[in-house]
Amino acid sequence: MDLSRLTVDQIGGVGPATAELLVKHALVTVEDVLLYFPYRYEDYTVRDIQQAAHDEQVTICGEVISEPMLRFFGKKKNKMTVRLKTGSHVIMLVFSTKPFIKKISPFSRRLRSVGNGINIKLPLPCQG
After folding, report:
1. Are 25 and 8 in contact (CB under 8 A)?
2. What is the per-residue pLDDT for 75?
3. Residues 28 and 3: beta-carbon distance below 8 Å
4. How many angstroms separate the CA atoms of 79 and 20, rounded?
């Protein structure tokens, strides 16, 4: 089946109004829809920290080498820090306003995190 020949109006559940809207955004074929990446597309491919440009958001994977330290600021604000060894670098990760992370994260193992040095998102286990 050649997806570049199927038009968007042949997709189940896509009516004339939706098809017209997709065509206005240059999404004419099913292949166009499948290969479309939105403006805020985020790539979560694990990369080496040395490949990152200044303030670029990257996904890194490494081994946690410290116990998580949780600090409270006021009633509902807190920060948790943990040190992550990735390659030959040790990085301090700071997670803000997420008190549940200390309970659910596998901090004795490997860790994957996404951020740009300022905003670090929820930590997840590394694959492999």
Report:
1. no
2. 75
3. no
4. 48
List pLDDT tens digits, range 55-99.
Answer: 777 888 888 888 878 888 777 777 878 888 888 888 888 877 555
Q: What is the 3-state secondary structure (H, E, C) of the chain?
A: CCCCCCEHHHCCCCCHHHHHHHHHCCCCEHHHHHCCCCCCCCCCCECCHHHCCCCCCEEEEEEECCCCEEEEECCCEEEEEEEEEECCEEEEEEEECCCCHHHHCCCCCEEEEEECCCCECCCECCCC
Which residue type is seen at 61? C
CA–CA gap between residue 78 and residue 97 (Å, rounded): 5
